[in-house]
Amino acid sequence: MRDPAMIETVAVIGLGTIGTGWVARFAAAGLAVRAFDPDAAQREALPEAIRQVLRDGGHGEAAEALRLSLHDTLEEAVSGADFIQENVPERQAIKADVLGRLDRAAPVDVIISTSTSGLMLGQFQEALSAPERTVVGHPFHPVYLMPLVEVVPGPRTAPEAADAAARFYERVGHVAVTLQKEAPGHLVNRLQAALWREAVACVEDGIASVEQVDKAVVNCLGPRWSVVGPHMAFHLGGGKGGLRHFVEQLGPGIQKRWNEFRTPDLAAMTDTLVRGVEEEAGGRDLNTLQRERDRKLSALLAHLAG
Ligand SMILES: NC(=O)c1ccc[n+]([C@@H]2O[C@H](COP(=O)([O-])OP(=O)(O)OC[C@H]3O[C@@H](n4cnc5c(N)ncnc54)[C@H](O)[C@@H]3O)[C@@H](O)[C@H]2O)c1
């Protein structure tokens, strides 16, 4: 595998929400980016969108020095790239086709990383000639702000490839967590789904409104989990006896709740949830809400990094 410290040029394939975020992340780190999307409108809008994100994020110099080339074919974008980040729509047939083309086009020491949120790499690897250099590199929206990337090896991924991908992501400012094996939803989306299941159940049972659930998370679990994870939080919650004491004292109640949790009916709850977020938004449009989120998130992350 190419030395992650020497990677200079990245190909970004698929320039929607996530591809655009990756371009900004790589450009902010001073790397050259070769970009492809079959939709010409997506390609044309990209340079200005990236400059805007970089300026808003305090990377004015990177915006001026932007090295971004747009290509009409996937093969041309990949040519000369040291690392490939694939972000095409989350559809089995499209992913299989694009991963196959990338596998044929790129030298075998170039890592091909897919951003897939929900597909398993293992189902694509058998059809590839060099599956050992493929890996999942799953980011979080917005990619240029969120620190974490989950690196997930498929059954045919070489450990050196997963390791090199993780080191490369760390080099561009991410925190990489390499999972021990693939699983549907990787790690974070499993955790997120578990919390949301109970959040929706609380609304369905009339315990709290959508806005109240969000308020509780933002003002308690969010701040706590931005500094310690759920295990460490309970270790500290156990006082001098740590996690063991915590479990002895509060474990039976938690186990009972786990056993009693039930799965809400998401389809039946959708209208209620949509009305709830609209009330919570209080007339602010999506663009306004997104900018508010990004502003607060950048301030929080800058504070935590400091
Ligand atoms: N949206 C998220 O929050 C999120 C988070 C993490 C990972 N992901 C993953 O990232 C990937 C992309 O998701 P998105 O939300 O950016 O989707 P999107 O629909 O915003 O963008 C997909 C882009 O791929 C382009 N495309 C279609 N066919 C293509 C092809 N054959 N070759 C190259 N490009 C092609 C489309 O024109 C579009 O611009 C998915 O695998 C998704 O699971 C999404």
Q: How is the biggest beta sheet arranged?
A: 8 strands, mixed
Strand order across the largest sheet: 3-2-1-4-5-6-7-8
Question: Which fold does the CATH topology of the largest domain refer to?
Answer: Rossmann fold
Distance between the termini: 34 Å
Question: Which structural class should the secondary elements be placed in?
Answer: alpha/beta
What keywords describe this structure?
binds nicotinamide-adenine-dinucleotide, 54% helix, Rossmann fold, 13 helices, N-(1-d-carboxylethyl)-l-norvaline Dehydrogenase, domain 2, 2 domains, globular, 306 residues, alpha/beta
Question: Topology of this protein?
Answer:
Blueprint: E1 9-13, H1 17-28, E2 32-36, H2 40-56, H3 60-64, E3 68-71, H4 74-78, E4 83-86, H5 92-105, E5 111-114, H6 122-125, E6 134-138, E7 148-152, H7 159-171, E8 175-178, H8 188-204, H9 210-225, H10 230-237, H11 242-260, H12 266-281, H13 286-305
Parallel strand pairs: 1-2, 1-4, 2-3, 4-5, 5-6, 7-8
Antiparallel strand pairs: 6-7
Nicotinamide-adenine-dinucleotide is lined by residues 13-19, 36-39, 42, 74, 87-90, 94, 98, 115-117, 138-139, 141.
Can you put this structure into words, describing what you see?
The chain is built from 13 helices and eight strands. It has helices at about 15-30, 40-55, 60-65, 75-80, 90-105, 120-125, 160-170, 190-205, 210-225, 230-235, 240-260, 265-280, 285-305; strands at about 10-15, 30-35, 70, 85, 110-115, 135-140, 150, 175-180. The longest helix is centred in the last third of the chain and has 20 residues, at about 285-305. The chain has an eight-stranded mixed β-sheet, sandwiched between helices. By secondary structure, it is of the alpha/beta class. It binds nicotinamide-adenine-dinucleotide. Nicotinamide-adenine-dinucleotide binds near residues 14, 115 and 139. GO terms for molecular function: NAD+ binding; oxidoreductase activity, acting on the CH-OH group of donors, NAD or NADP as acceptor. Keywords: Oxidoreductase. InterPro entries: 3-OHacyl-CoA_DH, 3-OHacyl-CoA_DH_NAD-bd, 3HC_DH_C, 6-PGluconate_DH-like_C_sf, 6PGD_dom2, NAD(P)-bd_dom_sf. It comes from Stappia taiwanensis.
